[in-house]
From TrEMBL, chain A:
Organism: Laccaria amethystina LaAM-08-1
Name by which UniProt lists this protein: 2-oxoisovalerate dehydrogenase subunit alpha
Catalytic reactions of this protein: N(6)-[(R)-lipoyl]-L-lysyl-[protein] + 3-methyl-2-oxobutanoate + H(+) = N(6)-[(R)-S(8)-2-methylpropanoyldihydrolipoyl]-L-lysyl-[protein] + CO2
GO molecular function: branched-chain 2-oxo acid dehydrogenase activity
Enzyme class, UniProt record, top EC level: oxidoreductase
Automatic annotation (TrEMBL), chain B:
UniProt cross-references to CDD domains, sorted A to Z: TPP_PYR_E1-PDHc-beta_like
An annotated GO BP: branched-chain amino acid catabolic process
The protein's name: 3-methyl-2-oxobutanoate dehydrogenase (2-methylpropanoyl-transferring)
Domain called Transketolase-like pyrimidine-binding: residue spans: 75-250
InterPro entries: THDP-binding (IPR029061), Transketo_C/PFOR_II (IPR009014), Transketolase-like_Pyr-bd (IPR005475), Transketolase_C (IPR033248)
Keyword NAD included in the entry's annotation: no
Enzyme class: oxidoreductase
EC numbers: 1.2.4.4
UniProt KW keywords: Oxidoreductase
Catalytic activity line of the entry: N(6)-[(R)-lipoyl]-L-lysyl-[protein] + 3-methyl-2-oxobutanoate + H(+) = N(6)-[(R)-S(8)-2-methylpropanoyldihydrolipoyl]-L-lysyl-[protein] + CO2
Cofactor: thiamine diphosphate
Organism: Laccaria amethystina LaAM-08-1
GO terms for MF: branched-chain 2-oxo acid dehydrogenase activity
Pfam families linked to this entry: Transket_pyr (PF02779), Transketolase_C (PF02780)
Length: 438, 408
C-alpha cells in the first residue's frame, strides 16, 4: 500500500524525534511514543491545551482582519460568489413557503450556512466528486445545476433527473455535476467518500487532479460511519476532503450534547490527518481553507478535515419548529450580528465592487427566476407510474418485481377509475398511469 | 442404494460412475463431503457442469460450450475462490480486493498470493471496520470500478447492514438509475463449521432477502464457487456472496482453469425425482445427500426407523444457489411434479428463507400439494458451541422430515 510521508511540520518533527528514542530504547514495538517518567493525562478541552483556533479573514462587518491574507479573487468571481450566496435564501424562502402551502412535501433550508457551502463549492474544481448530507444544494447551483432542476426534484415531476420523483425533496444528485445523490441515512456518505477518493487515485486521468469532497453536519459526525470514513481515507490513503458543517444543532440537540471534546476538528489529528477550523460565516476564509485543504489532499493523497463553524439560523426542516428548543431572540440576534451574506456584501462594497442598486437588481432578478421556475414546475406531471418498478436492479428485472408490477396493473384496471384516491393520483402522472397497463 | 433416474444419469456422469463403483463401506457409512457424489471429480464431469458459460479472452467472440481443449485442476473451495478473484483482477484493471487481513492471504487462505501478484494497491488490508469496508466498497463502485470486499465472517456483516440495505441496495433506484454500485461484491464465509459457536456459524442470508436491489448467492462446491463468484463480480448489481466455510478445505473438485461463469438466480436440480422435492443450499446440500442415502439404504441400527415402503422413494434434490432473487420457476415446477416440499437451511426457522419460499410455493402449487411444506432448519436459538450437532439440520432430521412428508 502507498503510504505518503506526512508533510505537516509538527508531525515530521515528532516522528523523527521519537524514532531516535525508540531505536535507542526499543520498548514499544508498534509505537514511536517517547517514554516519560512523569504521569500526566491530557485532554484537548479541559487540560492545559487551548482550544483549536478558528481561521478568519473578514471581521463581522467585512473588513480584512489584522494579518489576514485575501484569497486570490477578482470582481467577477466575487460577484459569482455573492450571487450564489443570495440565490440560496431566495430559493429557500420560496420553497419553504411552497411547502407550507402543501405544494411540496418537505424542505430544508440552508439559512446561515451560505458562506460555508458556496465558499467550499467555489474552492473545489468543478469535477471534484461531491458527497453531501442534504444542506449542500449550493454546491450544485455553483456548478450549473439550474433552478428548474432544483424545482423538478422538489416537486418530483417528470423532469426530475435526480431520482424520477422517488426521493424526498432536497435529495439532489447529478453525475454531470459530479454530485452523488443525497440519501437520508446520516454519515453513510463518509466512508463512501473514502472509496470514491481511492477510485480517483486509481483512475489515470484523474489521479493527482481530482478529489472526493464530503460534507456532513456535526451531528452526523457522531455516527460510526464518521469514524470509519476518516480512518479509512487516512490509512488507505485517499484524496478525500472532509468538510464538517458545525452549525451548533442536530435538529434539537445542541452540539454541547453531541460531544464533550473540542468540536469535530479535535478528532482529525487522532486519525493522523491535517485539520483546520474555519469561520464558516466568512466566505473568504472558507474559500482559502478549502483551497489549501484541497491542495494538501492532492499532495498527500490522504484525507484532510475542515470544520466550518456556523449557526443554523433556519429550523432543521419544514417538519421542525426550532423555537421549541431555542429562543427566537437568539436566532434573530444571530441573523443580525453575524450574517455571512451581509459580511461579504460589506466587503464587496469596501472594494467598490457592489452598491445598493446592484443589490436591488440582483434580488429582484433572483426572485423572478425562482418564481418563474416554481410556476413552471407546478404545472408539470410526474414521471410515468411504471417507473415505480424500474431501476431496482440493473440488467433483467427479476420475476418478483415483474409480477408485482403486473399485480398493480391488474388492480388499476379494476379500480383505477372508480377508487377516488387512486383516480385523483393517477391524473398527476404522465400518461395518467396508462403506461403501467401496457 | 438409491437409483438415479435416467435424466440425472445423463446430466451427472460422474455421479453415476462413482455411485456404481464405490459401494458404501461396510457398516453403511454415510457419504461425507469428502466422498460426495455431487462433487465432480473428473475433468469430463467438471467441463460438463450445467449452464457453464466460458468467457474467453476475446470478449467480442461469442461464448462457447466447446469442451475440447479445456483443462481442469483439482481445487478445494478456497482455491477456487482465489482462482476466481485472480481472473477478475487480471481481466479488470479497475478491480480491487480488500478487507480485514486479506493482504497476507486471508484467514481462510482465499486471497493467498494475490497481493504479491497484483500489488498492494489492488489487494490490501483495511482497518477493522465492517461498516467502513462496505461503505468504502460502495464509494469505489460508485465510480464504476470493481470492488471485491471481504467480511471476515458473515456473523460480522451486521455492522454493515445499513450500508448494504439502505445504501448499496437502493442507490440505483434512488438516483433514477444515474448512479449504481453494480461493481460491488461482498464475499463472506458463512454457516456452521463444527465449533464456531455464536459468532462463527451464522447464516444471515434471510436478513438480506427483503433487501430488493441486492443479490445474495451461496455456492455448494469449488466449481460453483468459481463460476458463481465470477458471475457475481460481473453482475450489474451489488452481490453478497456467502461461502460455506466448512467447504473451504473439505469440498474438492476438478475445476476448469479458464474463465467461466454460472448464472445467478437459477437453482440446479442435483438429483431428479418424482416423489418429493428437497430444497437446500450451501453446506446442507451434503446433509441432504447423506439423508437420501440414509433413506434408500439405512445402516443396520437405523433400519427399524426407516419405513421400508419409503426406501425406494424418488426424491428430487435441488440446490437453490441464489437466495435473492430466487428461482421460483424451477422450484414451483418441481413441486408441481412431486406434490411435496421439504426445505432445509441452517439459519433459524422464524422468518428464515424457508418461510418466504414456503409461502410462495404454497400459493403457486396449492392444488398440487399432497402434504404441508416442511422446514428443517436450525432452531430459533443462537448457535450454541457444545450443542451444534443438535442444532444443525443434520441428515437424521432431514430423513425424518422426508418420511413424515412422504407419509402424510
Amino acid at each position: 500500500m502507498i503510504r505518503t510521508f506526512i508533510t505537516a511540520p509538527h508531525r515530521a518533527h515528532t516522528r523523527s524525534f521519537s524514532t531516535t528514542i525508540s531505536r535507542r530504547q526499543q520498548i514499544l514495538p508498534k509505537s514511536n511514543s517517547p517514554i516519560v517518567s512523569k504521569l500526566e493525562f491530557f485532554n484537548s478541552v479541559t487540560g492545559s491545551s487551548s482550544l483549536i483556533p478558528t481561521y478568519r479573514v473578514l471581521d463581522g462587518v467585512g473588513n480584512l482582519i489584522h494579518g489576514a491574507e485575501l484569497p486570490q479573487i477578482d470582481k467577477a468571481f466575487a460577484h459569482r460568489l455573492y450571487e450564489n450566496m443570495q440565490l440560496l435564501p431566495t430559493l429557500d424562502t420560496v420553497l419553504y413557503n411552497v411547502q407550507r402551502q402543501g405544494k411540496i412535501s418537505f424542505y430544508m433550508t440552508a439559512y446561515g450556512e451560505e458562506a460555508t457551502i458556496i465558499g467550499s463549492a467555489a474552492a473545489l474544481e468543478m469535477d471534484d466528486e461531491v458527497l453531501g448530507q442534504y444542506r449542500e444544494m449550493g454546491v450544485l447551483l455553483w456548478r450549473g445545476f439550474t433552478i428548474d432542476d432544483v424545482m423538478a426534484q422538489c416537486f418530483g415531476n417528470e423532469e426530475d433527473g435526480s431520482g424520477k420523483g422517488r426521493q424526498m425533496p432536497v435529495h439532489f444528485g447529478s453525475p454531470k455535476h459530479h454530485f452523488h445523490t443525497i440519501s437520508s441515512p446520516l454519515a453513510t456518505q463518509i466512508p463512501q467518500a473514502a472509496g470514491v477518493g481511492y477510485a480517483l487515485k486509481r483512475t489515470p486521468d484523474r489521479r493527482s487532479r481530482s478529489i472526493a469532497a464530503c460534507f456532513f453536519g456535526e451531528g452526523a459526525a457522531s455516527e460510526g460511519d464518521f469514524h470509519a470514513g476518516l480512518m479509512l481515507a487516512s490509512t488507505i490513503p485517499s484524496p478525500t476532503l472532509y468538510i464538517a458543517r458545525n452549525n451548533g444543532f442536530a435538529i434539537s440537540t445542541p452540539s454541547t450534547e453531541q460531544y464533550n471534546g473540542d468540536g469535530i476538528a479535535s478528532r482529525g489529528p487522532g486519525y493522523g490527518i491535517d485539520t483546520v477550523r474555519v469561520d464558516g460565516n466568512d466566505v473568504l476564509a472558507v474559500l482559502s481553507a478549502i483551497r489549501e485543504a484541497r491542495r494538501r489532499c492532492l499532495e498527500q493523497g490522504r484525507a484532510v478535515l475542515v470544520e466550518a463553524m456556523s449557526y443554523r439560523v433556519s429550523h432543521h426542516s419544514t417538519s421542525d419548529d426550532s423555537f421549541a428548543y431555542r429562543p427566537r431572540t437568539e436566532v434573530e440576534d444571530h441573523k443580525k450580528v453575524d450574517n455571512p451574506i451581509t459580511r461579504f456584501r460589506l466587503f464587496m462594497e469596501s472594494q467598490g465592487w457592489w452598491n445598493a442598486d446592484a443589490e436591488i437588481e440582483l434580488k429582484a432578478r433572483l426572485k423572478e427566476d425562482v418564481m418563474k421556475a416554481f410556476k413552471r414546475a407546478e404545472t408539470l406531471k410526474r414521471a410515468e407510474l411504471s417507473e415505480l418498478f424500474t431501476d431496482v436492479y440493473g440488467g433483467e428485472q427479476p420475476w418478483h418485481l415483474k409480477e408485482q408490477r403486473a399485480e398493480l396493473a391488474r388492480l388499476l384496471r379494476k379500480y383505477g377509475s372508480d377508487y377516488e384516491p387512486w383516480r385523483k393520483e393517477l391524473a398527476k402522472f404522465k400518461n395518467n398511469g396508462r403506461d403501467l397497463l401496457d | 442404494m438409491f437409483s438415479l433416474p435416467f435424466k440425472a444419469s445423463r446430466r451427472f456422469p460422474s455421479l453415476i460412475c462413482r455411485s456404481n463403483s464405490t459401494a458404501p463401506p461396510a457398516g453403511g457409512h454415510l457419504p461425507s463431503i469428502a466422498t460426495s457424489t455431487i462433487l465432480r471429480s473428473t475433468r469430463e464431469a467438471a467441463l460438463r457442469t450445467p449452464w457453464l458459460r466460458w468467457l474467453d479472452d476475446n470478449a467480442s467472440s461469442p461464448s462457447t460450450v466447446i469442451v475440447g481443449g479445456r483443462e481442469t485442476r483439482k481445487m478445494n473451495t478456497y482455491q477456487a475462490v482465489r482462482d476466481a478473484m485472480s481472473i477478475a483482477l487480471a481481466k479488470d484493471d479497475s478491480a480491487v480486493v480488500f478487507g480485514e487481513d486479506v493482504a497476507f492471504g486471508g484467514v481462510f487462505r482465499c486471497t493467498m498470493g494475490l497481493a504479491e501478484e497484483f500489488g498492494r494497491e489492488r489487494v490490501f488490508n483495511t482497518p477493522l471496520t465492517e461498516q467502513g469496508i462496505v461503505g468504502f466498497g460502495v464509494g469505489f463502485a460508485l465510480m464504476g470500478h470493481t470492488a471485491i470486499a471481504e467480511i471476515q465472517f458473515a456473523d460480522y456483516i451486521f455492522p454493515a447492514f445499513d450500508q448494504l440495505v439502505n445504501e448499496a441496495a437502493k442507490i440505483r433506484y434512488r438516483s433514477g438509475g444515474t448512479f449504481n454500485v453494480g461493481g460491488l461484491t461482498i464475499r463472506t464465509p458463512t454457516m456452521s463449521v463444527g465449533h464456531g459457536g455464536l459468532y462463527h456459524s451464522q447464516s444471515p442470508e434471510g436478513f438480506f432477502m427483503g433487501a430488493s436491489g441486492l443479490k445474495v448467492v451461496i455456492p455448494r462446491s469449488p466449481i460453483q464457487a468459481k463460476g458463481l463468484l465470477l458471475g457475481s463480480i460481473r453482475d450489474p448489481n451489488p452481490v453478497i456472496f456467502m461461502e460455506p466455510k466448512v467447504l473451504y478445505r473439505s469440498a474438492v473438485e476438478q475445476v476448469p482453469i479458464d474463465d467461466y461463469e454460472l448464472p445467478l438466480g437459477r437453482a440446479e436440480i442435483l438429483v431428479s425425482g418424482t416423489d418429493l422435492t428437497l430444497l437446500t443450499w450451501g453446506t446442507p446440500v451434503y446433509h441432504c445427500e447423506a439423508a437420501l442415502h440414509m433413506l434408500s439404504s439405512p445402516e443396520a441400527a437405523l433400519q427399524p426407523h426407516i419405513t421400508a415402503s419409503l426406501r425406494s422413494a424418488k426424491v428430487e434434490l435441488i440446490d437453490l444457489r441464489s437466495i435473492l432473487p430466487w428461482d421460483v420457476e424451477t422450484i414451483a415446477e418441481s413441486v408441481n411434479r412431486t406434490g411435496r416440499l421439504v426445505i432445509v437451511h441452517e439459519a433459524g426457522m422464524t422468518a428464515g428463507v424457508g418461510a418466504e419460499i414456503s409461502a410462495e410455493i404454497q400459493k403457486r402449487c396449492f392444488l398440487k400439494l399432497d402434504a404441508p411444506i416442511k422446514r428443517v432448519t436450525g432452531w430459533d436459538t443462537p448457535v450454541a458451541l457444545q450443542y451444534e450437532k443438535f442444532h444443525i439440520p443434520d441428515a437424521i432430521r432431514i430423513v425424518d422430515a422426508v418420511m413424515e412428508t412422504l407419509s402424510y
